[in-house]
Amino acid sequence: MRRSTALRHAATTTVLVGLAATGCGTGAADSPGDTGQTSQAAQPDAIDTAATVDVRLVLEPTSLDIAGTAGAALDQILLDNIYQGLLTRDEDNKVRPSLATSFKESPDGLTYTFRLAKNAAFHDGTKVTAADAVWSLRQVTAAGSTNPDAAALASVKSVTAADDHTVVVTLAHRDTGFTWRLTGRAGIVFKRGTDFSSLAGKENGTGPFKLGGWKRGSSITFVRNDAYWGKKAKVAKVVFHYIKDDNAANNAQRTGQTDIETGANATLLQPFTDNPDHTVLRGDTTDKFTLALNNAEGPTKDVRVRRAVRRAVDKAGLIKILGGAGRPVGGPIPPSDPGYEDLTSIDAYDPAGAKKLLRQAGYGDGLKLTVQIPTIYPAEIGDYLASQLKQVGIQLTVRPVEFQTWLDAVYTKHDYQLSVVDHAEARDLNNFANPDYYFGYDNADVRTWYAAARTAEGDGARDALLKKAARQVSEDAAADWLFVSQTLTVVRDGVTGVPRNFTSNRYRLADLAVAKK
């Protein structure tokens, strides 16, 4: 069976360690959560096209094989910059053309025709043709595909080339999310015949940047592709510096070692606010910090226990201690996704109600649980959860684990009771329509509604079904959603075109520019 697309996002999207402590609001204020702005300076008339931009990121990829290695750290830096798909997403998370300059959907929603850019080329100089796109998509949809995003194209029936620059995709059934899913790694166009195993430490994409070098454990460098087929990058080089510690990242930004600090910690922003040498950008994310509850076994198999856990945690209090950022969501769909509905009234903070549910479940004398939390998240999350659950009679043992340990024990083996992870990918309700996913949640109605949403004839019908499914997921307490975060980015004066929104999923460099001194 194909793996869910969520592995690369849910399991590895802590690309911005400061995510859990980012802020919202406008301008500097007493509360760190009121820091940041949604606009930045316009590109200056005179730019330095020989400039290098240094960017702080957190989670370094383990391989560059985006066709076979899970991890949003790969998507974040490789999508749009090194590799391109038929389609892409813009700053507002909308579907836009990429290698396909246009596309047309048939009236019955079963056939999509893509027109490829005629001058596109791979980094080795080979021209891109429809044969490359057909081959690439067929690798994803082939039986036994190891592509981490294989499930994204499950609706594809056939892929053919009408001519050298026209790709025709036929679906087995209408799929309202098909073009969206093509914007991810499933839609990447590789050179026909590529040996994916050869990509582990190199690349041959079509994007505006090439790989310049990789100092493992430290940094990855991209250099401008001067032979790029489209609008060329405005800077000569970008260096991604992998700095996990927030204080070290702040120091790097203050001392000029980096020009851009992503995932800035809201509580450490004082050196940058009201500082003419820096701008703090506030951006939206689809990062859902999720308290996973094992639905398949152990005490949390009982819905009353899961509901009690949810009622025991005051989400507003957690958001406050993490710097004031984020918003409660109450369900699996964030505000920027289709089908969003405020579900925070379901199992809202109610310690007395939590105790009552625990008594009904047979745990009136107390319950012991363990939560596994990757060490890349703020320790305050585990401390807060333990304190909250203690008040309702649950003794919570917090077990910090390395991320690879989390992947093996929790994601792969489902060996856990509670776990905290950032599910950053957009439109990932499918996780709850998959009984084999690590949540262990199985509801036939949710599976039916989600499947119907994918084949709905219009966005309105789709969204109504997604809302219905998401509400059921929340009412079943399939998980607890701690908050959806916003992210803060610190930018040195003179640097423009900096990505602001949804930067956990991709960090597009095409518009970066540096003012000429």
Automatic annotation (TrEMBL):
**Keyword Glycoprotein: yes or no?**
no
Q: Which CDD domains match?
A: PBP2_NikA_DppA_OppA_like_6
Which residue ranges does the record assign to the Solute-binding protein family domain?
A: 94-423
Which keywords are on file for this protein? Signal
Supply one GO CC term from the record: periplasmic space
Q: What are the GO BP annotations of this UniProt entry? A: peptide transport
* Domain of life of the source: Bacteria
PROSITE patterns, A to Z: PROKAR_LIPOPROTEIN
The record, for InterPro entries, names: Peptide/Ni-bd, SBP_5, SBP_5_dom
The UniProt GO MF terms for this protein read: peptide transmembrane transporter activity
Please report the name of this protein according to its UniProt entry.
ABC transporter substrate-binding protein
